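Backbone-to-sequence.
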């Protein structure tokens, strides 16, 4: 979050994860992409589209025809917006309103779930057995 004469900059998401975290996130996305996309629609209404750097191809270990191929190619999952003095257009869109904070809480929980200790342990077990990730 940043404040300037132009407005308030608000950003959130996963920025520059390390190789192990990236693999954990992609592995989780391969099986939970539907719930991830549903949760990502909340902040999208306030902040615009989810964006971030992407690879040209699906990473090794994942099928190219996977339904979440676009998400699996991503290296970052971010939202960014500048709220000008004219923003929010309605009081219900205030950052303090329960709807906005609830959307961010759901997004934050969903986006960090693959980095939980349990998810990491499952990933390491799968990595040791050399099974494909999806």
């Amino acid at each position: 979050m940043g404040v300037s004469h132009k407005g308030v900059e608000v950003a959130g998401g996963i920025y520059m994860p390390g190789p192990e975290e990236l693999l954990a996130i992609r592995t989780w996305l391969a099986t939970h992409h539907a719930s991830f996309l549903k949760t990502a629609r909340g902040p999208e209404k306030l902040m615009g589209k989810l964006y971030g750097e992407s690879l040209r191809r699906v990473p090794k270990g994942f099928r190219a025809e996977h339904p979440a191929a676009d998400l699996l190619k991503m290296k970052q999952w971010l939202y960014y917006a500048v709220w000008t003095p004219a923003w929010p257009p309605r009081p219900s869109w205030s950052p303090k309103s329960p709807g906005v904070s609830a959307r961010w809480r759901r997004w934050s929980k969903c986006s960090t779930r693959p980095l939980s200790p349990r998810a990491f342990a499952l990933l390491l077990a799968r990595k040791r057995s050399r099974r494909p990730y999806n």
